[in-house]
Amino acid sequence: MSFDGSFTHSMRNELASILKTGRVSKINQPYPNELILTIRAKSKNQQLLLSANPTYARVQLTKIPYVNPSVPSNFTMIMRKHLSGAILTNIEQLDNDRVLRFLFTSRNELGDQTELCLVVEIMARHSNIILVDQKTNKIIDAIKHVGSDVNRYRILLPGATYINPPKQDVQNPFKKASFDDINKLIIDFPNVQVLAANVRKNIQGLGKDTSLALASYLHDDNKTETNFKKFFDQFDHPTPTLSNIANNKINFTAFPYPGTIKNKVYSTLSELLDSYYAERAQHDRVREQGAVLIQVVKKQLKKNRTKLKRLNRDLAETENADEFKIKGEILTTYLHKITRGMNSIELPNYYDNNSSLAIKLSNQLSPSENAQRYFKKYQKLKNAVKYLAEQIELTKQEIDYFENIQSQIELAKPEDLVDIRFELEQGHYLKDHEQRNKKKKAKRRKINKPEAFTSSDGTEILVGKNNLQNERLTMHTADKRETWLHTKNIPGSHVIIRSFAPSEQTLTEAATLAAYFSKARDSSKVPVDYTKVKHIRKPNGAKPGFVIYDSQQTLFITPTEEAVEKLKN
Questions:
Q1: SS3 (DSSP) at 193
Q2: What is the per-residue pLDDT across 302-312, written as a single tens digit (0 to 9) for each?
Q3: Which stretches does DSSP call E strand in 32-143?
């Protein structure tokens, strides 16, 4: 599972066949390390994703929608300045390395033609996207700035001379003519695993999985040159494949590798990567962009859980309140036996067959004041019961609230984080992290729309992805006669069926969405309540998205990703 040099070779061919001579119409940077160029080629708009993400670095065409930040980054503005309207003349690969060069012709402010090169280096945490002036070989800008304090060999800063990544002493397999060295390796290393490791040292652009596949091909028979060329010819004529390998792991390859099972073939490499990376990359983006939110929620949960333990401990202590009342009454009865200065006394407990009861006294108080002291302790504890019960209930609500937020972040798309952040800011949980100016803060903010699905009979189903969307959907958007669904006693999304009389099939499909977009998405037989919207109420002062309801019925659903995919618009 690697975007190695050989896979890059196949991707270069695919992109060149689709994008060459296309014109750049839009440039966006939806995520910190990713750039999307919309290129108009062959009468179609294509979204070219260039990713320098440390974990998911890649280059591909994508159909996955994205949401742009409200304010473009400096890097985006520089890309727009130099590449808007530019023509893509060619796409080159540096030998068989994970480096692609997108060559453009453009016009500067004076109308003069310029030649630019957008270099994408796919190298894990060292991945980068760099715009270079071809004439001077000077860097215009890079998505990640690398100074001399980080890398003495290559400085990737505006104005610096661009230097290619260090060249390795290995051979480009697509230009290899002699195979004596490969024959020697086969003889010296008959074990496939060992042969693969040594082939990687001699042949450029091989990830571990690709080298193992090549080693299997080379061991097929004694036709080394034929097997070698047959293997690499498949990168020029790919069959994009998603496969299962050992330990239920998923692997993407340019063609089926030996030993893989459950191979699923795609029409293009880009479609293959969309399928493979969609959920993984999105989860990583959410984790990256929602780092502050995740930290705040964890902090609040820890604080409230600690508080709940303390409150329960204090409540347990109030169970001894009657002891103080009894001691006060016994002291009042036997005041004549007590003198000032005593530290303790034993008196008959007429509540327990006149058994002896030891009572501590303050030698600074009179007998009457000692009795009153016990009555005051009793009254204080009795008053505390009501207060503690209220605080325990409020603290439990806070825990439920933040567990719900935590679940929403886990299920969120990057664009959903904006609403969650806004909600936490409104609740003053994020006041220390607020960086907007007062004007923007005071400006009324528009809530994102809920996600829309379509049932098998064509009925629209709306799903709120966070508390603000849930509240808008249930309390303002939905008709009172429509059907509302939610997982029973489990944090999750509000779901609305846009029909006054939904079919049983639609009801089941909507319940599947409610179960999937909840904390119980990986569980089976998830209870989902449904009722008419007219039975939904929001208590005064309740947090966003919190409602109570009645007249409900319950379905038990086992959600699956496949079922949800079928319902997507």
A1: helix
A2: 999 999 999 99
A3: 34-41, 44-51, 58-61, 87-93, 99-107, 113-121, 128-133, 138-142
- Using CA atoms, how far apart are residues 15 and 119, in angstroms rounded to an integer? 14
Contacts 24+ apart (CB under 8 A), 357-361: 357/326, 357/327, 357/330, 359/327, 359/330, 359/331
Dist CA 152 CA 263 (whole Å): 44
Residues of the chain with pLDDT > 70, as a percent, come to 95
Residue 205, CB half-sphere, CA atoms under 13 Å: how many?
21
- The sign of the CA dihedral 112, 115, 117, 118 is positive
Helix axes 367-411, 417-426, angle to 10 degrees: 160
* Residue type present at position 129: I
30: β partners = none
For the record, the structure tokens of 397 come out as 């609500």
pLDDT tens digit sequence for 203-230: 999 999 999 999 999 887 778 899 999 9
Burial status of residue 378 (CB atoms within 10 A of its CB: 0-12, 13-18, 19 or more): buried
Residue 25's φ and ψ, nearest 5 degrees, are: -105, -30
Number of H helices, E strands in the chain: 15, 22
**C-alpha pair distances (Å), 87 with each of 25, 91, 163, 513:** 10, 12, 24, 44
Nearest Cα residue to 545 out of 430, 422, 413, 431: 422
**CA separation (Å) from 445 to 329, 389, 418?**
62, 37, 10
**Two tokens at 526?**
């998830």
Contact partners, residue 366, CB within 8 Å, separation at least 6: 340
Q: Contact 162/146 with Cβ under 8 angstroms?
A: no
Tell me how far apart the terminal alpha carbons of the chain are, to the nearest angstrom: 30
Tens of pLDDT, residue by residue over 119-170, are 999 998 899 999 999 999 999 999 999 998 887 788 999 999 999 998 888 9
Helical pair 291-317 and 367-411, crossing angle rounded to 10 deg: 150
What's the CA gap between 75 and 98, in Å, rounded?
Answer: 22
Q: How far, in Å, CA of 132 to CA of 149, rounded?
A: 22
Tell how far CA 424 is from the center of its chain: 18
Band the pLDDT of 428: cuts 50, 70, 90. confident
For tokens 């009645």, name the residue. Answer: 550
- In this prediction, residues 539-556 reach a mean pLDDT of 91
Beta bridge partners of 46: 39
Residue entry with tokens 């939806």: 30
Which residues neighbour 249 within 8 Å (Cβ) at sequence distance 6 or greater?
A: 1
What values do phi and psi take at 28, rounded to 5?
A: -135, 155
The helix (H) or strand (E) run that includes residue 356 is strand 355-360
Q: What value does the mean pLDDT take over residues 39-62?
A: 93
Contacts for 227-233 with beta carbons within 8 Å, 24 or more apart?
A: 228/173, 228/176, 228/179, 228/182, 232/6, 232/173, 232/174
Give the Å distances, CA to CA, from 54 to 1, 129, 503. Answer: 15, 12, 47
